Structures are given as C-alpha cells and as structure tokens.
Amino acid sequence: MSVRIVTDSTAxxxxxxxxxxxxxxxxxxxxxxxxxRVESDITPDEVAEALRAHTVVTTSRPTPEAFVECxxxxxxxxxxxxxSVHLSGAMSGxxxxxxLAAAEAPVPVEVIDSxxxxxxxxxxxxxxxxxxxxxxxxxxxxxAITGRLSRTSVLFYVHTLEHLRRGGRIGxxxxxxxxxxxxxxxxxxxxxxxxxxxxxxxxxxxxxxxEAMVHEHVAATGMAVDLAxxxxxxxDRADTIAxxxxxxxxxxxxxxxxxxxxxxxxxxxPGTVAxxxxxxxxxxxxxxxxx
Length: 291
Description:
Blueprint: E1 3-8, H1 15-21, E2 24-26, E3 29-32, E4 35-38, H2 44-52, E5 57-60, H3 64-76, E6 81-86, H4 94-102, E7 109-113, H5 118-133, H6 138-149, E8 153-157, H7 162-167, E9 184-190, E10 193-200, H8 203-221, E11 223-231, H9 235-248, E12 255-259, H10 262-268, E13 273-284
Parallel strand pairs: 1-2, 1-6, 6-7, 11-12
Antiparallel strand pairs: 3-4, 3-5, 8-9, 8-13, 9-10, 11-13
Helix pairs in contact: 3-4, 5-6
C-alpha cells in the first residue's frame, strides 16, 4: 500500500519539508481589493501592507474540484490511499470541501479535521508522511496524525483584535473587544476555535507569558517537542522568541520561525506572533532531562 498525505496551505509548512516528505498542499484563496489569488501567489508582506492600508482582504476555501484533481493525480501516480489533513472546520470550510471530494476520489481518502492551524497541523502532517514513507497502512498513519494533533498547543498574541472581528473568527474572544485598547490579549486555539486565555497590559508581558505557558505545556507532556514561532510582519520579535525557546528547551527538536501566510495573516493582522508546540508521543524526554 502507498499512502500519500495531503494538507492545505494554512499548515505553512516550509517548502523544504514539503519536498522532503512528498506532501501535497492544496492552497486556499485570498481576495485583496476585489482580486482573487491563491495563497501561494501572494506574499505575507503584501497582505500586511493591504491591511495597513485598510484594503478589504477576505479569504475562501479551495473548491471541492481542486481536491478532486489532487486526489486523482495522486492515485494516477500510484497512491492506493490518501490521508487529507486540514484547517479547523470551525474556522473554514476547507475540510468540508475535502470530504465532498473524497466521495469522488478513485482511492480511499480519510479526511481529518485538525482542529488547529499552522505548524501545529504541519508537524502532525510531517509525522504522518514519515510513517507513510515507511510503508505504514492508512489506519496507522491516521492514528499517528490524530495522536499528535490531540497534544498540540497554539498560543498567540495579536496587536489588535480588529482583524479577527472583521473576519468573523473571534469567537469567545469577542468578550475582550470592549477593553481591547487597554489590554493585550493572549489567545489560544482550542477545540478548533479561538478562545481568550489571559489579559495583560503590555505586548512584552504577553510574549513573556506565552513563552512561560509553552514551557509549562511541554514539561507537563513529558514528551519531546517540535516548536514553531509564527508571525506576520514581526520577524525580529519571532527570532527573539525562538532564541528564548531554544535556550529554555534545549532538548526540543525543531524550533522553526515561520511567517504566517496570507490567509491566516488576513485574520490576525500585522504584528501577530504565535507559538505552536507539537509534542512527539513516540519520544519521551530522556531521564533527567525533563525541563
């Protein structure tokens, strides 16, 4: 059996990992000032500039036909089964489009709602691809992906809640809007939705608290971990956070700095930083090295 892995562009997988593991990426779409483009054709800088200029930026899911084409092409290339892992269904219709396409695919397709985004999804996708490359069956690949997803954590800070409000993705965090000017919210992705976690008074305190919470989460799992620091137009801050994490968690595997793409960037806005922590269930911390 040859199992192939499909995800979407909101995993923000570095291109090197996509190529190394043969992962197929179906792009979402972004509409900037009335012009529609696939996410891969617009840079984060362009989206940040458009948002600052108050240009209307909206996003949309891939069509089911895009997934039908992807699944058919993989089957033609020799795939006998496909595992397709996507952005939280509570945030996007992407996973539903994949399910519609799966019903028409020439090979069995298992569609997984990651209930998250970014590299919290991306690291799980990589684990599935690594297992598939070793000849694992669909059930084992899916189990590895969902097992890793269930342990992930995404914490983030936004410069303003306004972009989340405009995009309708603010969810329970809407309770913070009235005091948004006076506080800096720490948000999380939990159960597929954006929820408020804590309120602090400055961005520096928000970042420090997120770093501490990630450290606590990793220590509590007792597992090795991969980390990604996401940002939109905040490269210096993201690099500093990554340095802090490497120093605090020297046993961590990957610590990547990955800029958010246009789709998620359009909803969170410039200045956003996030940390995705993805424990590796198959790798406990070595004795005496738990942080």
